[in-house]
From TrEMBL:
GTP binds at N39, K40, I41, D42, I85, V86. Belongs to the small GTPase superfamily. SAR1 family. It comes from the Eukaryota. Keywords: Endoplasmic reticulum, ER-Golgi transport, Golgi apparatus, GTP-binding, Nucleotide-binding, Protein transport, Signal, Transport. GO terms for biological process: intracellular protein transport; vesicle-mediated transport. The chain holds residues 20 to 122 of 122 of the full protein. The lineage of its organism: Eukaryota, Viridiplantae, Streptophyta, Embryophyta, Tracheophyta. One of its GO terms (cellular component) is endoplasmic reticulum. This is Ras-related small GTP-binding family protein. It is found in: Endoplasmic reticulum; Golgi apparatus. The keyword Membrane does not apply.
Length: 103
């Protein structure tokens, strides 16, 4: 699952968190890897990765970038990557991270 959040639209972080929480607690998605993309970082004052993680309540839930083997762990892969769709940057790393969990 790829969840794209506008990192500049801070007023809607609470709404984003609510939607994300609903997806995270959906039983039919329990084993689905989650890639959270924080978009629009080309705009000054967009939230940083840490800020976004905090506002989405993910500070203690991300499972690690790079190659992390979670096969026997019962832990759902979840990571935050910052990106700018208009600048064509950042999301490649995110999708690469995600691809290791797709069989
Ligand atoms: N600066 C910037 N603008 C972007 C980027 N990606 C998309 N946009 C612009 O954002 C606008 C659409 O984005 P949103 O308004 O967030 O679109 P949306 O998700 O359909 O809208 P909501 O459902 O209301 O959240 C367009 O004008 C895009 O050009 C980006 O990486 N940087």
């Amino acid at each position: 699952l790829v969840y794209l959040v506008d990192a500049y639209d801070q007023e809607r972080f609470a709404e984003s968190k609510k939607e994300l929480d609903a997806l995270l607690s959906d039983e039919s998605l329990a084993t689905v890897p989650f890639l959270i993309l924080g978009n629009k970082i080309d705009i000054p004052y967009a939230a940083s990765e840490d800020e976004l993680r905090f506002h989405l309540g993910l500070s203690n839930f991300t499972t690690g970038k790079g190659k992390v083997n979670l096969t026997d762990s019962n832990v759902r892969p979840l990571e935050v990557f910052m990106c700018s769709i208009v600048r064509k940057m950042g999301y490649g790393e995110g999708f690469k991270w995600l691809s290791q969990y797709i069989k």
